Amino acid sequence: MLRKLVGFLLRKLPRTLLQRISKPIFKMISIFYYGNNVECPICNKSFKEFFPYGRKTRNNALCTNCLSLERHRLIYLYLEKKTLIFKNKTKLLHIAPEGCLISIFKRFDNIEYITADLNSPLADIKMDIHNMPFKENSFDLVLCNHVLEHVNNDIKALKEIKRVLKRDGIGIVQVPFYDPIPEKTIEDKIVKSKREREKLYGQSDHVRKYGKDYKKRLESAGFNVKIVNSYTYLNKSEINKYGTDENEDLYIIFS
Fold first, then answer.
1. CA dihedral angle for residue 29, residue 205, residue 122, residue 132, rounded to 10 degrees
2. pLDDT for 146
């Protein structure tokens, strides 16, 4: 019953409202998930399992303490294990920032951390991703997680990311993939209604459904692309312990 309710609310409530009300609600739910089978690497809390979550419910998905999902934990573990972001001086742009990651990055004095988004109440700067208010070659790292499926022109947005990213910088740009994954990304400017978008793209506020050509779309904006599978930096027991999706690859972009 609770799973169905969460799925219904995710479909019906605006994302900005969900960002405001979710944390206290799930903090209370945490009481019922006490245990030591899984651990969130972001907030270091342990549970018997992660909370089932999503419009189409995914088991073992949400940390009820910090609200991290599989993709957030995957990104954090990659940054921790495979980069020097937490050690070297780093200028980081986080587009459409997630609360669980905000709390991590703000702890480190070596990170100059900037959050930006058009609508998010969590962002410091109100910004249109198609026209970012930053100089060229500004950032060592850009995080853009499940954003491009919402924007009007994803290629233009990617070119803006390339413009503000330093020549030796990297970006992590994740998008959702819904089964069956099409060969080519589907987008149709004629589709306007929420019902049509949910049917065609998998979610009512999405404007495209990404396909197997996603890497080529990133390359068309001028990036080199490295696809990183979680097994290259996590073993099977870590994947189970941290509740990451072993089938999700990270898309690392660089000049």
1. 160
2. 97
Domain boundaries, the chain: 2-68, 71-254
At residue 226, the 3 state secondary structure works out as: strand
In 3D space, the residue among 172, 181, 155, 146 whose CA is nearest the CA of residue 226 turns out to be: 172
133 and 163 in contact (C-beta within 8 Å)? no
81 vs 83: CA distance, rounded Å: 6
Helix (H), strand (E) at residue 141: strand 139-145
Q: Are 86 and 95 in contact (CB under 8 A)?
A: no
pLDDT at site 233: 95
pLDDT beneath 70, residues of the chain: 1-24
Which pTM was predicted?
0.90
Residue 79 tokens read as 């940054």
Structural class in CATH, domain 71-254: alpha beta
The string of DSSP codes covering 28-91 is: HHGGGGEEEEEE-TTT--EESSPEEETTTTEEEEE-TTT---HHHHHHHHHHHHH--TTTS-EE
Q: How many angstroms from the chain centroid is the CA of residue 244?
A: 13
